[in-house]
Specification:
Elements lengths: L28 H14 L5 H9 L21 H8 L4 H13 L12 H19 L6 H21 L5 E5 L5 E5 L4 E3 L6 E3 H6 L9
Antiparallel strand pairs: 1-2, 3-4
Helix pairs in contact: 1-5, 1-6, 2-3, 2-6, 4-5, 4-6
Bound molecules: zinc ion (2 copies).
Length: about 210
């Protein structure tokens, strides 16, 4: 087999064959646009990062994660929200790439500040240099994967917030039923007793058992 033929240059992400006007690039134009879109979604006062921060402390915006816990109120997702929004989470992933890119002459490292500001600054730097990076930085597939993961994780947490929480309650007969917090009521499968909304939510919570 003759392998001396020049290989067809392909996008390292999708991996579509690169077109003539994409010569010299590591990634195709659509993949560049996808990365840009993912980055853009993270930043700004209405971006995913800011919305995750609101999730931790309602009404205070993206000043950074300050957890308000009131005793007895479980906060689902809080751990993952914290790890994403704290120093070491999203902001550090972005800044690590900014730092890495700067060694390729693609932008300079930000000047610090509040977490939201650092996120915005890092996103801005990456977006401004993305087109040049497309033909200069060989690890854009890794960057694309990480940014997409962050976006997906953040979106999952934020959309999960809108779904009503489910709880397992135990009827006096011992049968466990799963209801949403906005349930209109339900009929027990075990004894066929009917429960209304507030009666249902007054039932004792069932222990989660392994099946
Ligand atoms: Zn591509
Ligand atoms: Zn029952």
């Amino acid at each position: 087999m003759n392998l001396d033929d020049a290989p067809v240059p392909r996008c390292i992400i999708c991996p579509r064959q690169l077109l003539d006007h994409e010569t010299g690039r590591f990634i195709c134009t659509p993949c560049e646009q996808r990365i840009d879109q993912d980055l853009r979604k993270l930043a700004g006062p209405a971006g995913l990062y800011a919305r995750l921060c609101l999730r931790i402390q309602p009404g205070r915006g993206g000043d950074g994660p300050v957890v308000t816990r009131s005793a007895g109120h479980p906060m689902p997702c809080n751990e993952s929200v914290l790890s994403l929004t704290a120093d070491g989470g999203i902001v550090s992933t972005l800044e690590t790439w900014v730092e890495d890119w700067s060694t390729y002459g693609l932008g300079v490292h930000g000047s610090g500040g509040r977490l939201q500001h650092r996120v915005d600054q890092a996103v801005d730097t990456l977006r401004r240099n993305l087109t040049r990076a497309a033909s200069r930085h060989p690890a854009l597939d890794e960057l694309a994967k990480e940014i997409f993961q962050i976006r997906r994780q953040a979106e999952a947490i934020i959309s999960g917030e809108r779904q009503p929480r489910r709880v397992a309650v135990q009827c006096t007969c011992g049968t466990v039923s799963t209801v949403t917090l906005d349930t209109d009521g339900f009929e027990c499968r075990g004894c066929e007793v009917e429960y209304g909304h507030s009666e249902a939510l007054r039932l004792p919570l069932a222990e989660r058992r392994a099946a």
